[in-house]
Amino acid sequence: MAAKLTGLLLVALLGCPVSGDHRRDFSELPAHRLEVFQQLASLSGASRYKRDAPHSRSAQQQRDGSSSCGGGTSDQAKLNKNTHKYTFEDDDGSTVTLAWVGDGTGIILALTTFNLPLAWLFFGGSSRLYRSEDYGKTFVDVSHLLSNYYIRKEFGINVGPEHSKKVILTADVSKRLGQSGKHGGVIIRSSDSGETFHSILLPFHPGQPMLYHSTNSEYLLAYSTDHALWFSRNFGATWGTVHRFVYTYSWGPRNTIFFSTHPDGIYDKDAKGVLELKRTTDFGGTFVTLLNKVYSFGFAGRFLFASVISNQTLPRSVYVSADQGDSWNKAQLPPVSHEQFYSILAADDEMIFMHVDEPGNSGFGTIYTSDDRGILFSKSLERHLFSDTSGTTDFTNVTSLRGVYITNVLDKDNNIRSVITFDSGGEWKPLKKPHNSHCDTTAKNSQMCNLHIHAAYSISQTLDVPLPPLSAPNAVGLILAHGSVGDTISTMIPDVYVSDNGGYTWSKALNGPHYYTILDSGGLIVAVESSPDKVIHNVKYSTDEGQCWKKYNFTNETFTFVGLVSEPGTKSMNVSLWGYKQESLYSTTWLSITIDFEELLTRDCQEKDYVKWLAHSTEAGEKSDGCILGYKETFQRLAKASVCRNGRNYVVSKDQSLCPCTMGDYMCDFGYYRVGDSDECVEQPDLADRVLEFCLQGKEELLKTQGYRKVPGDKCEGGFTPNRSEQMTNIKCEQILSLEDPLPKITIIIIVISVLAASVLMMSGIILIFKKYVCGGRALVYRYSVLQTNTDEACIADNLDSGRSNTERVYHDDSDVDLLE
């Protein structure tokens, strides 16, 4: 019997230094990791928005989601001529790492590595590097460029930002020199997209991948195994020390570097909460101490965050700076005990989404949204699911339409349900039931039948969910996701659902789990069935956003599929299927099959192929129809019936017009919240009849409000205009800690940031890792992993795909956890 998906009990986050295996407080995730998480999928279509009349689908097509819509024979012949197979002969690599270099260059680097620890024995290691200039159709073995070094796979292929053509590989010196590497580490770098490489001997041993500056790829930061922060201004040719005994660090604007360090000049992994946050703008020549008693910090959008401990009797506090640390303000959030944590879910130049954990290891908390200064926060969503035991939250930014986010909540019956917001957290609603789906058999209440989306949490629980929800900025309104239809999310095998209007309505696109990807800015979608026990011969594709699917038999030989990849940016017309052929029990061969769809969509789209579409349209003909965040957007989108190519030069075209203000353009002010589906903001009971005051730049400020403040980024004019004022007094208040105050030592909970910034989508490098494990005397086990560089283990076949530890606990219906009222 299928059980309802349940959550993990949340435990306190304890943090770690940057050289550890845990997440870094407030630090941005590596850009290539973020992008791969967002990019390795695509979209299918629904028929919500008014374009051409949608194709009708037969009952059989609706059942299997992949029946031919005609023209299959001619397509098969065209695609046969444009399908290219490459076999990695005589390569025993257990891991394959892929990286795209540049945008539209067609250059892919593939690094294979092999080592096999077995008990106390070690059978050496090997690395081979391959390079493709035609989107993976062919590869050239360029392993000689590695100078016989063994490349550390945990450092990956470190690709520079934008069109820098820069690549860094980190070598394992001990295997090359036969010693412990006392002379320092080695990087192998390229400035021409991997055509040539040159090795550089480092004056330190790197403990993490090099961190590129976002706009100047010559600038690098490196963190050494002895906790020192190093910098280079010439792409690693020469190095200088920024500071020793560094805990966390981040690039800021221009030449700015932020980092935390111990005031006593030591490194103590348990010293969080006594650190100093410093800033340098001249690569360590001079320093400015911004804060002390710091536990963690991070820089995202235009905001600098810091978690600060005042003393042992008070809870920790979050401070925010919008001027790179010159001035600080305390974030006006509910106080939390040392058993709770904050987590920044998203941040940009306009606002912050902050998760505040509930007490009692409940596994959920409340989402608050900030004003445009990052200071005042208002309650947005209660009982938001956030599991620390798996380190995941389902909070997803739908990049294909502004203001849209999807996440999951944990109800009082310990069931998980999905909700969506179209106005940046102002209001959350259930996802509508797809028009071509029925409530699943696990539903207890058929009157509450909605779509529920599987995301990172489901993946962490090893459910059969290959990919999280996917959207792309240049495929307007499209979302593709795995999900189930019922009164709550289910552990039954999920299906693939699609929305073509930013999540307002959905349609079932494919039965069962699939890998999927967007090509040609949404003009083409490709999907491959996820079935570990089944040999894959067919790829499915759609030119009408998933209404009709055709099948292409890309091979007749035995081929075990492990991953579907395409160039980041969703503009490519090429897709590669990676997998292996098993030659014998102990011998396998990696191969990739690349399909070029350019011959399928040979005609360039013309103006007649596009139609106008009003985003966020729900009440056609109404004056306010389409108004969201204070303005309307009318896009020019490809008509579903148009079978043509958008091309690499395609740019999303849109017109904007302002709207009069309504309650929907306002968020609830500090001390107020919305109840149910009402637009009205009511006062929080614990703050009723109290003077609302907060501290800004050392002076007390009084807030007079009717309970509303405009959503950051909202452009509405006139209409509903509630009174609101902030009155500065001459009363001094404790804004930040004195830099001379003694620093207490106390254990607190870290503040975690997982910033899914839009700029990440523009990075030119994207990395994918495939792993296979070989165990003597046992069947071969293969694993497909999205940037999880776990070390090879010997004969752990039974647990290869399990991300859960033995200490994890799950929710039960009789749980006595404290619930937020």
Beta-strand segment tally: 54
Figure out the total of helices. Answer: 5
DSSP strand content: 35-45%
Major sheet characteristics: 7 strands, antiparallel
Defining key terms:
821 residues, mainly beta, 36% strand, disordered C terminus
In brief, what are we looking at here?
The protein has 821 residues and is mainly β.
Structure in words:
The chain is globular. It has one domain (31-570, 588-605, 750-799). By secondary structure, the chain is mainly β. The longest helix has 10 residues, at 72-81. A seven-stranded antiparallel β-sheet has the order 15-16-17-18-19-20-21, with no helix packed on it. The protein is 4% helix and 36% strand.
How would the blueprint of this fold be written?
Elements: H1 31-39, H2 59-64, H3 72-81, E1 83-87, E2 95-101, E3 107-118, E4 121-132, E5 140-141, E6 150-151, E7 158-159, E8 167-172, H4 173-177, E9 186-190, E10 198-201, E11 211-212, E12 220-223, E13 229-232, E14 240-243, E15 246-251, E16 257-261, E17 275-280, E18 288-300, E19 303-308, E20 317-321, E21 329-330, E22 342-347, E23 352-357, E24 364-370, E25 377-387, E26 392-393, E27 396-397, E28 405-410, E29 416-421, E30 429-430, E31 450-453, H5 456-460, E32 479-486, E33 495-499, E34 507-510, E35 514-519, E36 524-529, E37 538-542, E38 550-553, E39 560-565, E40 574-584, E41 587-596, E42 610-614, E43 631-638, E44 653-658, E45 666-668, E46 672-674, E47 681-683, E48 692-696, E49 699-705, E50 708-710, E51 724-732, E52 751-753, E53 767-773, E54 781-785
Parallel strand pairs: 22-52
Antiparallel strand pairs: 1-41, 2-3, 2-53, 3-4, 4-5, 6-8, 7-8, 8-9, 9-10, 11-12, 12-13, 13-14, 15-16, 16-17, 17-18, 18-19, 19-20, 20-21, 22-23, 23-24, 24-25, 25-26, 27-28, 28-29, 29-30, 31-32, 32-33, 33-34, 35-36, 36-37, 37-38, 39-40, 40-41, 42-43, 43-44, 45-50, 46-47, 48-49, 49-51, 53-54
